[in-house]
DNA sequence: CTGAAAGCGCTTACAG
DNA sequence: CTGAAAGCGCTTACAG
């Protein structure tokens, strides 16, 4: 910077002001500085700036290993990165893939004094971990998690699930199963809230909640097959399956078809996410915008950092929307009749059964 | 740090040496410093350290928006992050999603003086861009790209494609199509090298290269359907399709089945990647380890940074392996016979055709 | 609008 | 093995 000052014939104070775009610099001085900076291809050392301002210009992002939910996390991170860049903040990534790394992170808190804010993506933190992060004494923003008293951004999963269920109900389905992942360590909130939405929609429609229609599956082919076996061996098969996430739904479609069940002719399948393959594989789904989630979170962190009046515990719930595709259809007429005979509120003039 | 020194009853010099684990500190002094640091929950300011050492402890990673290839990029980034963490380096992510961001990045070079090394993931850089990066005057490591004269880590795509092709050939296939993505902006190297491997394997087997069997498709259902239409309307259908990437292969299987063609009964489908859904959807594939790619690259950057003797232009090609699953099988006997009648080297004692 | 000077929190010769 | 002192490259009152 001293070189630039010398070349521009001004003091380093002026160079500093000029390169940061502070207003109180005469146009001539500014242009001389800009020329000199250009010629010497000068760039500010953030380290030096940080030392005096106490701001690093960086946001630490704590994220699980991406393979855990590659589409969601990858897309959300991309939105986050774009939002931070627009706010001129650098993104310092802390990727945590297992328990020992997790312990090490919260023990050493390497982000300390290294970032102006910390964002936590899709992590279900323990109370101790949350307290540890508070010690960093920087704003915290939670993504995909409702953290009471802290800023957070998340998809309105319950509303999304209700939306998806209403669609299936509108198609005429009355026996709708819900398939959840048995993985306990990842998106607990989402899974829980989606189940809430499932129940609410049933209630809205005046249908009973049937425990046997809610099944959990390990995230692999045998696991899914077993869960589907449970549904197919009920006294009465469901006419639709609302699956917690698209990647499971792909598998569900594949398993159903492999055992000769037509989708959607006999059973409709509805997913949640709008994974890129959903369009390819023609899966109806409740879309959530992972990108938007990340981008909104970046905007929130930026406003907390720059606007002292902003609410540091603001909650933002993002909407979802239904994307109907080829994996859903009205239930087969005969089975609709059966269902109508048994289900409490006979929706149309069809009746008589076993 | 001054507080720690006071509390420990030593100078800041000693504190500095102790917290960095420099050897020339007496055990008593060290333990006193450690106690004091603990009590005050002290952590070094990287900004201040950087200012004097000139090292930031950070590596900048330039990556396309993850949705472009979520599985590969996400997984590779995870491996990269783990490798950097092990080397005690922070990961500064620069996510570039469009041309204007790209231009802005290379214009401003925000990583300048902000990172000790720069890694470029899956970007096909122009010569000017590469020169711009050289101006940063830090080591460069390319991931998923062969950059002459610069360090790089990549999958051996040609060998992987040969491996996959040999498998199909060993099963008895003689008419094997190759389906590539028409997307021009992403993994050009991979696509090119996979095609090279395809041709080499044909040559090895003494089979002719047939232009009509190599098709390109847009990455959406209509695009894939059109490409498959081209193959199905050849005088003689292929008995196997080697697809450039798993996500396209899923679609290929889906399209083939939707038009009543049995996979693998009539046509075998082989992918490339070992995408997580490949196992679920029972797709045979040539596996590459994206995680390993990232992790290896992190190791390379770390060795370049710490070992002055390390080769700053080292190339590391990573292996692939075949994962046979249910989407591949020997060709149907009748069509094998036809193919044998036409193809140059009749492999077995089967012959006579149209 | 501009500059001289102090200081941010470290590390590192240097002297002991 | 330890400490006093200089200095890394900036920003920011302060005075003009």
UniProtKB/TrEMBL annotation, chains A, B:
One of its GO terms (molecular function) is DNA-binding transcription factor activity. Residues 343-354 have a biased composition (Pro residues). Residues 1-53 form the HTH lacI-type domain. It comes from the Bacteria. Residues 320-354 are annotated as: Disordered. InterPro entries: HTH_LacI, LacI/GalR-like_sensor, Lambda_DNA-bd_dom_sf, Peripla_BP_I. Keywords: DNA-binding, Transcription, Transcription regulation. Pfam families: LacI, Peripla_BP_3. This is LacI family transcriptional regulator. It comes from Streptomyces piniterrae.
